[in-house]
Amino acid sequence: ATALPFGQNRLLQRVCLVLGLWTVYAATHATQAFDFWLESALAWVFVGVLTFTYRRLALSDVSYLLLGGFLALHVWGAQHKYASVPLGVWMQQVLGDPRNPYDRFVHFAYGLLAAYPMQEWFMRSMNVRNGFRYFLPIQFTLACSAVYEILESWVARVLSPQQMQEFVGMQGDVWDAQNDMLVAAVGACVAMGITAAVRGLRARQGAVIQPQFAEISGKRLR
To answer: In 3D, which of 79, 88, 96, 100 has the Cα closest to residue 37?
Structure first.
């Protein structure tokens, strides 16, 4: 992970610039401005936490790219209130789904893109090792998904019944919250599976390279 100050981290500056411009565009073209900012509130609280903790625990560039990708997907969904995102409309036609599946796609992306940064945070802040470094990000993904669904239901209760359905984005699915948590967990499992496979491949490559390096070094010494 990089320890560069933000003023010297060019990649992170570009990520923030692109995400900022994308947010401004989405906010100015949102279906309903109030709903856009309401749905984005938790995301920007999360950005604030990342900003506040940057000097103490800067994540890797890969983690910031993954988180930036997830936030960009969320901003696009908030712009169209999720139920009418153009990509979701296309997916709905291709899959023959009775509902716009973009919100499910973003929940899956949350698990897929945020699990690796979670793992990095657990490993570096709590020194988590062995199998727990793959288990805890999946559990944390489920916990965060559950908290989000609970907070979303609280906000929805303040609104009228019609607004509640639109804000929550159930689209007629009575198991919407449970399915959202399920796909997020699946995304986290996929991310951890990929991470474990890449680490295993690198470990095998390292095991091959080290003896070869030792043999070459020995010949030079002789």
So the answer is: 79
In the chain, which residue ranges form alpha helices assigned H by DSSP?
10-28, 33-52, 61-79, 86-95, 102-125, 132-158, 161-168, 176-221
66 contacts 114 by C-beta, under 8 angstroms: yes
User: Higher confidence at residue 205 or residue 114?
Assistant: 114
Nearest to 168 by CA among 107, 103, 217: 103
At position 184, the amino acid (one-letter code) is: A
Q: Take residue 79 and report the two structure tokens written for it.
A: 């712009």
Query: In the block, which residue shows the tokens 């995304």?
Result: 187
Q: Is the pLDDT of residue 213 over 60?
A: no
- Rounded to an integer, what distance in angstroms lies between the CA atom of residue 31 and that of residue 94? 24
% pLDDT > 90, the chain: 41
Q: How many angstroms separate the CA atoms of 26 and 29, rounded?
A: 5
Mean pLDDT of 161-187: 74
With contact defined as beta carbons under 8 Å apart, do 2 and 61 qualify?
Answer: yes
State yes or no: pLDDT of 121 exceeds 80: yes
